[in-house]
Give the backbone structure.
Amino acid sequence: MLRAWLVNRVATVLRFLAPLMGCLILAGQANCAPVGDWLGVMTVQPGTDLRIAVHIRQSPRGDYSATWDSVDQGLFDASMSGLAVTADSLSFDVGNLHAHYAARWDASAGLWRGQWSQSGRTFALNLAPGMAPPAPVIAGLDGDWDGALALGAGVKLRLAVHIKTGPHGTLGHLDSVDQQAMGLPLSSIHRDGDRIGFELAAPKAAFEGMIDAKAQTLTGQWSQSGSSLPLMLTRRAPGQVEATLVRPQTPVKPYPYREEDVVFDGGAPNVRLAGTLTEPKGDGPFPAVVLVSGSGPNARNEAIFGHQIFLVLADHLTRQGNAVLRYDKRGVGASTGHYAKATTLDFVADAQAAAAYLRARKDIDPRRVGLVGHSEGGLIVPMVAVRDPSTAFIVMMAGPGVNGADILTLQGRLLTKAAGMSDAQVDAQSALRAQMIAIVRDEKDPAVAEAKLRAVAAAAPKLEGVSPAAMDAQIRALNTDWFRFFFNYDPAPVLRQVRCPVLAISGSKDLQVPPDQNLPAIRAALAHDPDADIEELPGLNHLFQTAKTGGIGEYGQIEETIAPLALDTFTLWILKHDGARN
């Protein structure tokens, strides 16, 4: 046993010395032989670091090749493209992530000093000679484990944990099935006898529990954002498949129409928007619709809780004879730009650019290009219509009619009530929310606003179910240019200037943009327009699903993506106003 231990120790030492031998810095020499193993740490958000490793090899002919690892995400020997290596520069692309790395050799520090760019964001990443040590080997946990968190009000969140031991140790990842958040890496796994635990770095969460005598169940507590919930994970039987979401409206290829990936200029010089254009068969020119998504870093399909809302909508409209363009928001997916710095006005410029791109195509009738916007998109499309008089029509799906401060105030009360909170809890959260909204609305200096927000939060009574980490995240989210604009923007003046046909629809059970608050304001602002239709659709929520309560917790539980009532309502209206049947 001693001999085996010694052999392993020597092998470990050689493994860590080998990378150092690939880069010898001699006196007066400023560059480096890039061949070898390189390791760095990238901070993707406060408290979340990812170790990135790059392995560069050189063939006898002198050609370079390389692979890369995202160690903490359990991704090893991944391919890259566009590798460019010299004695003092290194760069490569990771196409499936739309990421790019570029670095220069720093002779004084003995490392590659560079930046990783992805989805409009840039992170410092310096690579020094070295390799990440393997994760510990944990016995008896390999396999797939299924369970569900009971969130209250009858809402369950299904989880699947996958653990596997390989050459890099015992690694794992978690799938949040109902949120369609898949492949979340476990940052650590540990076992002490029958006690089992694992952690996630992003989101910050942990599980601690016990394994049963037959090693078939893990029973314990799930902790996240200061809250703790019971969780039992059961080992999946051989041959059993993972639970999946039932989404019967999601279209399946082959489609009875054409589909084309497109890239076009956005609303700013550094923005290129990537999207998908679907067209009926035939030569055209076709009437066309631009789909404008709601708030958040949405890609072209506006995916929410496993529902591909814009994929379903585009499929439906294309089958009815319309060309449809949907696109990734700036800085999201395959689009360039900086999402985190954008406000609604930036997204207005991008939507206007999307419509202009369609009008320039020979297969599109430039006189019949309209826009359909959902939620924040419903705020955006009237602004596009006023800026661009050639807009054929607009559809506001759950679009706001009053300022964002009023919306968030009522929305907060309705959602917390739907989540099962008591009247006292609802009142306490509402009072604090009102103070925070006032600060963000009135204080233009973000640093001053943050200090005021933290002071108000510290002085407020402790809110049940709201951890310090959750409060910190809420403060950072609110104190942004996006919210500052949203809170202060009144849609009514722009709506009064719209001169094209308008359809504004809302679900009666929408708790995010409540119809009782917003539809009357929209109706009043559009009173001048004889071709404006304002409708409240009974029984539908913010996503236009047939709902029971309208609470966000229902979104993922409902199999329906868009109710037929909603699809029929705006499809018939669009066919009437886009000239497709003229």
